[in-house]
UniProtKB/TrEMBL annotation:
Subcellular location: Cytoplasm
GO BP term (any one): protein N-linked glycosylation
Reaction it catalyzes: D-fructose 6-phosphate + L-glutamine = D-glucosamine 6-phosphate + L-glutamate
Functional summary from the UniProt entry: Catalyzes the first step in hexosamine metabolism, converting fructose-6P into glucosamine-6P using glutamine as a nitrogen source.
Gene that encodes the chain: glmS
Keywords: Aminotransferase, Cytoplasm, Glutamine amidotransferase, Repeat, Transferase
GO cellular component terms, semicolon-separated: cytosol
Keyword hit for Cytoplasm: yes
Catalytic activity, EC: 2.6.1.16
Name of the protein: Glutamine--fructose-6-phosphate aminotransferase [isomerizing]
Keyword check for Secreted: no
Quaternary structure note: Homodimer.
Annotated SIS domain residues: 40-179, 212-354
Organism name: Tianweitania populi
Length: 364
């Protein structure tokens, strides 16, 4: 039931504040300011590497999580798309653990990666939205996302709930590995607890984003740029746009611009820049200046501080509240989903069931 929404995707975008809060509460004790003691098939302090495999949007959630595990837990992460991971015949060290991320829990390439790790004797955990799925059954432990059923082929609430679980796990790993002190744990848990409120604030930007989407629906190509955790988000923005609006879009690490894609920039190329005012901000702004100097049209997704500092002509800005760094990927996911959604609505595509795609990809 879509309720009063035009599409399941719209409904699922709007459910995010609630389901993110629900998911976080499963992993975090907000009252005590602690990560919960969830049963793990391995101890984070006993492993020296975490291998992540997933496909599509789930892979991009894992790609954000790599930054978190490395930053908060000093745990090296190896991540690959399922279709590569399964055939890499990666040498797996005895002190590693494997993590799989899948909304459906049925994705063939992710499942095959899991079975490869099983054959290598590594402990296996999975972040899944469907607890009765094959991936869930074949894992030693599951970390559920409590997103509820996701009907739209384009993943939205499952993605932000995956991010919520992974952020909580990264903090937990940091605690177990001795890199997050009790005070830091309390602070990070408080920051995470604020994600639903900021997601609600992001949803209120719908009128402005719809206007920008009207313009975006006129173009043939678009580029998304970001650094740090905003790099996988740039790829997620591009994936979302291409899968439902059929506009060709690419997501790039902003620093890669001058290694090729800058050749594409002219007045017909919109560039969507995802840049909260964080440690990477100044570098991303200089990439934006390179785009502006070549006549590229910029849509900057930032916060109030970022908007104050980045003054570039011919730029549109989507301004989110200033949010703690750890929740930025969760909050910034919403405007990029909305931008793709409204663009697809203007294009008149079948938003919930885009051509050539299936909700669950059970063949390789
Ligand atoms: O069910 P899964 O999370 O394993 O699915 C993985 C991908 O097929 C999925 O995320 C796909 O990329 C989505 N259509 C993206 O919106």
């Amino acid at each position: 039931d879509k309720g009063n929404h035009r599409h399941f995707m719209e409904k699922e975008i709007h459910e995010q504040p609630e389901v993110i809060g629900h998911t976080l509460a499963h992993y975090l004790d907000f009252v005590e300011g602690r990560t919960r003691d969830i049963p793990l098939p391995f101890d984070f302090s006993q492993i020296d590497r975490l291998s992540i495999s997933a496909c599509g949007t789930a892979f991009l959630a894992g790609s954000v999580a790599r930054y978190w595990f490395e930053r908060y837990a000093r745990l090296p992460v190896d991540i690959d798309v399922g279709s590569e991971f399964r055939y890499r015949e990666m040498p797996i060290s005895p002190n590693s653990a494997a993590l799989f991320i899948s909304q459906s829990g049925e994705t063939a390439d992710t499942l095959a990666s899991l079975r490869y790790c099983r054959s290598q004797g590594v402990p296996i955990a999975a972040v899944v939205n469907v607890p009765e799925s094959t991936i869930a059954r074949e894992s030693d432990a599951i970390f559920p996302t409590l997103a509820g059923p996701e009907i739209g082929v384009a993943s939205t609430k499952a993605f932000t709930c995956q991010l919520a679980v992974l952020a909580a796990l990264a903090v937990r790993a940091g605690v177990q590995r001795g890199h997050v002190s009790p005070e830091q744990e309390r602070e990070l848990v408080r920051f995470l607890s604020e994600a639903p409120r900021f997601a609600t604030a992001a949803l209120k930007l719908d009128d402005q984003i719809e206007k920008l989407a009207r313009e975006l629906s006129q173009v043939k190509h678009a580029l998304y740029l970001g650094r740090g955790t905003s790099f996988p988000l740039a790829m997620e923005g591009a994936l979302k746009l291409k899968e439902i609006s059929y506009i060709h879009a690419e997501g790039y690490a902003a620093g890669e611009l001058k290694h090729g894609p800058i050749a594409l920039i002219d007045e017909n190329m919109p560039v969507i820049v995802i840049a909260p005012h964080d440690r990477n901000f100044d570098k991303t702004v200089s990439n934006m200046q390179e785009v502006a100097a070549r006549g590229g049209r910029i849509i900057l997704i930032t916060d109030t501080e970022g908007a104050r500092r980045a003054t570039i002509n011919a730029m549109e800005t989507i301004i989110l509240p200033d949010v703690p760094e750890i929740i930025a990927p969760i909050v910034y996911a919403l405007p990029i989903q909305m931008l793709a959604y409204f663009t697809a609505v203007f294009m008149g595509t079948d938003v919930d069931q885009p051509r050539n795609l299936a909700k669950s990809v059970t063949v390789e």
